[in-house]
Amino acid sequence: MDRGRPIDRYYMENFLQKHQADIRGRVLEVGDAHYTRRFGGERVTQSDVLHVNLKKPDVTIVADLSRADHLPADTFDCFILTQTLQLIYEVREAVKTIYRILKPGGVLLATFPGISQRAHPGYLERWQDHWRFTGASAQKMFAETFPPQNVEVQAHGNVLIAAAFLYGLAAEELRREEMDHHDPDYEVLLTVRAVKPA
Question: Taking the CB of residue 24, how many other CB atoms lie within 10 A of it?
Fold first, then answer.
């Protein structure tokens, strides 16, 4: 962050920009409502923030997604879940919760790391960095809960981006054509758009 925008944020923000029409109605976001406000605008009728710690600003829902039976079903039109799944050990349980709490026709917009350094323990408070995914594993995992035809997984990155990200370079230190070149052998960030059937 001290050098500029992290490389993975470039892909995350492009993904959310591309799917901003999905960010509408009642929207749930983890941690804070930054992306809900930035990409949802007037389409959002209610914004909720989920966190495991009530002391965080703007938190409206306290829950662990892998143990969240208390969250009501069929509630959210959109769930923005950025860079979180790798921190949840019982990740399949979390995906089942996400599916259950989305309204029929609701959309999950998720991102998580592929090739990446481990998240710093001090940054994570009580959470640990458990997983790294591939496009294939993400597709299979989400298709266990969402209908397979409603799951769209995309990988972003290339060998230059993977090396630059691991060395700590910022997005501003690379050219756009370098960022946008896709090499399927180097999955730096994965994005998932999954829709619960109407």
Answer: 16
Element spanning 178, H or E: helix 176-180
Alpha helices in 87-174 (DSSP H): 91-101, 121-124, 135-143, 159-167
Output the pTM of the full model. 0.94
pLDDT band of 14, cuts 50, 70, 90: very high
Residue 118 lies in a domain: yes
CATH of the domain at 170: 3.40.50.150
- Domain range for residue 52? 7-195
Edge-first strand listing for the sheet containing 61-62 = 61-62, 44-51, 25-30, 76-82, 102-113, 189-195, 151-156
pLDDT tens-digit readout, 165-178 = 999 999 999 999 99
Domain count, the chain: 1
